[in-house]
């Protein structure tokens, strides 16, 4: 099928394109050509993909295909102007190792990592899913971009919430939601230890889409001012005027994050994507960030429920781009508003933070209202035509 982001001469971007063939090869049993599509996966423990997947026929990675000229000098230490990353320590960090559990101790992680929490979590997730090898991502630009991105999360009560929201194949809730729409036959022989979402997402989603989902999660609140869309629209903020009062914050987050990526080649960790891959990746990230606008909530949920209620269809068609995008939109939405579903300790901390942020906005609102009333008051007593001022 053809999508809105594709031109008529663009190659198809579904599971058969270059990105689709790179279906999370980390899920091959030994990541060699000897894997025949059967046998347990080293990451998720499943015996085989749930549905026919390009993973079963993906060509094996070779040393030549995974090592790039610009990454030959990259060692176990990545040195940036204001920070250092020890790759071995990050790969074996016990706290980061808990990133795939639902009640991930994000506040403990923030105390440990400080301002580097987002970049460290991004590295660990990309490493676990084999995305560095699949897309030949250079490490230095990768860390440079995500470190710059995390500096754009302002010091607000919920200013660092984007660092905790990891949607897609990592979150337990998303795993259970996606699992609901797979045939029960796929799960009858599974035991609890094997029920890892990598089996669903890894077998049915091209790696490019998984990477887009992770990137969108990291970008989706970039440069958030700590105010709501309604506030920005009511106060005629520059962003509201620029985006015509429509999904103001979400458009701003996406545009600002992409502007950062394209502003300097030092941040371009996507440099090895093919043109069609880059075009689709950008489309997906934008769509996923815009899906976090709560004004779109009922539209997305209604479409999702209608898809599931249609008894004549096969529920989610994993070969259909639109269906996969809908699942990804639901995944990032679930991850964006999952606070009440966390354990009480985490839930209360997020609740206090969002309450403080709303309190700040209320204070600003009252200040602007009083300022406006004072302006009208002075205009009334300083005007000869008081009737007209009073009517105003």
UniProtKB/TrEMBL annotation:
Location of the PDEase domain: 83-392
Biased composition annotated in UniProt, kind: Low complexity: 1-11
Top-level taxon of origin: Eukaryota
CDD domains assigned: HDc
Binding site for Zn(2+) 1: 220-221, 336
Record keywords, A-Z: Hydrolase, Metal-binding
UniProt xrefs under PANTHER family: CYCLIC NUCLEOTIDE PHOSPHODIESTERASE
Designated name of the protein: cGMP-inhibited 3',5'-cyclic phosphodiesterase A
Source organism of this protein record: Trichonephila clavata (Joro spider)
Gene for this chain: Pde3a
């Amino acid at each position: 099928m053809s999508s809105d982001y594709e031109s008529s001469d663009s190659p198809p971007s579904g599971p058969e394109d270059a990105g689709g063939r790179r279906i999370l090869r980390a899920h091959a049993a030994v990541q060699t050509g000897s894997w025949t599509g059967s046998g347990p996966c080293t990451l998720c423990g499943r015996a085989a993909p749930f549905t026919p997947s390009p993973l079963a026929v993906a060509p094996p990675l070779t040393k030549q295909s995974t090592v790039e000229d610009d990454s030959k000098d990259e060692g176990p230490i990545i040195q940036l102007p204001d920070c250092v990353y020890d790759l071995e320590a990050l790969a074996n960090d016990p706290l980061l190792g808990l990133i795939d559990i639902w009640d991930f101790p994000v506040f403990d992680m923030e105390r440990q990592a400080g301002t580097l929490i987002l970049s460290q979590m991004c590295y660990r997730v990309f490493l676990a899913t084999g995305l560095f090898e699949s897309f030949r991502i250079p490490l230095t630009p990768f860390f440079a971009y995500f470190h710059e991105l995390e500096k754009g999360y302002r010091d607000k009560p919920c200013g660092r919430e984007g660092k905790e929201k990891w949607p897609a194949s990592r979150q337990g809730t998303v795993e259970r939601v996606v699992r609901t729409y797979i045939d029960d036959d796929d799960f009858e022989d599974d035991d609890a230890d094997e029920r890892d979402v990598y089996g669903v997402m890894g077998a049915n989603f091209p790696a490019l889409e998984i990477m887009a989902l992770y990137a969108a999660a990291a970008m989706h609140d970039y440069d958030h001012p700590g105010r709501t869309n309604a506030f920005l629209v009511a106060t005629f903020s520059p962003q509201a005027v620029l985006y015509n009062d429509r999904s103001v914050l979400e458009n701003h987050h996406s545009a600002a994050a992409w502007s950062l990526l394209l502003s300097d080649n030092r941040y371009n960790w996507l440099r090895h994507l093919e043109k069609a891959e880059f075009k689709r990746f950008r489309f997906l990230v934008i769509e996923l960030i815009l899906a976090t606008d709560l004004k779109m909530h009922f539209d997305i949920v209604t479409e999702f429920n209608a898809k599931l209620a249609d008894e004549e269809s096969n529920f989610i068609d994993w070969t259909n781009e639109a269906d996969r995008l809908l699942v990804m939109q639901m995944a990032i939405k679930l991850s964006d508003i999952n606070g009440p579903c966390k354990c009480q300790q985490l839930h209360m901390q997020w609740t206090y933070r969002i309450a403080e942020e709303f309190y700040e906005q209320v204070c600003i609102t009252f200040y602007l209202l009083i300022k406006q009333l004072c302006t009208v008051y002075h205009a009334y007593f300083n005007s000869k035509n008081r009737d007209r001022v009073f009517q105003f």
